[in-house]
Amino acid sequence: MPRQIRMVGMTGGVPYYGGRFTPAQAYAAAHPPPRPPDPPPAANAPVASPGDQIEALRHLLETGVLTQEEFDELLARVER
């Protein structure tokens, strides 16, 4: 059995040519796939209304995530 055929088992489904690229590998190396488009900027994200933000802050205060001082500070930022 030729050595090249025996080496296929070691390299998966890609034939092994003594350390050289196959024609398909050479083409793929010379022609990389195009980059995917960048995601849209975060400025397009929906903005929560001040009422929703206040409700979220109240929930965090009630569950103990925020202290009263932190809640007051964040509430002042939302109301600006």
What does this structure look like?
- This protein is mainly alpha-helical and 80 residues long.
- It folds into two domains: 1-33, no CATH class; 47-79, no CATH class.
- The chain is 52% helix and 0% strand.
- It contains four helices and no strands.
- The protein has helices spanning 3-11, 23-30, 50-62, 68-79.
- Helix 3 runs antiparallel to helix 4 (68-79).
- The protein is elongated and about 75 Å long.
How would you sum up this structure in a few lines?
With 80 residues, the protein is mainly alpha-helical. The chain has helices at 3-11, 23-30, 50-62, 68-79.
Based on the model shown, name its key terms.
0% strand, elongated, 2 domains, 80 residues, mainly alpha
Number of helices: 4
Compute the separation of the termini in Å.
80 Å
Q: Averaging pLDDT over every residue, what do you get?
A: 78
Structural class: mainly alpha
- Note the main sheet: none
Written as H for each helix and E for each strand, in order along the chain, the element string is HHHH
Extract low-pLDDT stretches: none
* Strand segment tally: 0
The percent range for strand residues is under 5%
Count of distinct structural domains: 2
How much helical structure, as a percent, in the residues? 40-55%
**What is the CA-based Rg, rounded?**
30 Å
Estimate the global geometry from the Cα principal axes.
elongated
